[in-house]
Design a protein that fits this description.
Structural class: alpha+beta
CATH topology of the largest domain: 60s Ribosomal Protein L30, Chain: A
Shape: elongated
Distance between the termini: 75 Å
Number of domains: 2
């Protein structure tokens, strides 16, 4: 049964690359472990990638993370097992979520994961639509400013 907080399916190869990127980032970068730390990292805008386990019970524990990541325009992905995520981060216990703040040597792997996830339902398509809507308003504001400056220069002469 699919969890309500899982917004898209992740292929096994992407999940494997995610585990490997987490291992590399743990060794050479900065990684925050656990739901609370991941939430703080996202709220502060420090996270570059958030990884959430799909087998969390109760699901309310991590339910807020995908929405928060979309709101802050931070990439996120899922992995199938919290135990494997814990092992990837170097813990002997399961881990529900992690946030990678500085990727270190995992930068290439993380950028590859993000590019594969760009086709999924994440923040990227939504931001493009918002930018398109804002652009005409910004252009109109710039035209008004130019008209005002022209009027002022004509009055000054």
């Amino acid at each position: 049964m699919t969890k309500s907080y899982v917004k898209f399916e992740v292929a096994k190869e992407v999940a494997d690359k995610t585990y490997e990127a987490v291992r590399l980032a743990k060794q050479s970068g900065v990684v925050r472990k656990g739901v609370n730390e991941a939430t703080k990292s996202v709220e502060r805008g420090l996270a570059s990638l958030v990884v959430i386990a799909e087998d969390i019970e109760p699901e309310e524990v991590v339910m807020h993370l995908p929405g928060l990541c979309e709101q802050r325009k931070i990439a996120f992905t899922y992995v199938p097992a919290k135990l494997e995520l814990g092992k990837a981060i170097g813990l002997k216990v399961p881990c529900a979520a992690i946030a990678i703040e500085k990727a270190g040597e995992a930068e290439k792997g993380i950028s590859e994961i993000k590019s594969r996830l760009s086709g999924k339902a994440q923040a990227e398509p939504k931001t493009e639509k918002k930018e398109e809507k804002k652009a005409p308003k910004q252009q109109a504001a710039k035209k008004e400013e130019k008209a005002e400056t022209q009027e002022q220069t004509q009055q000054a002469q």
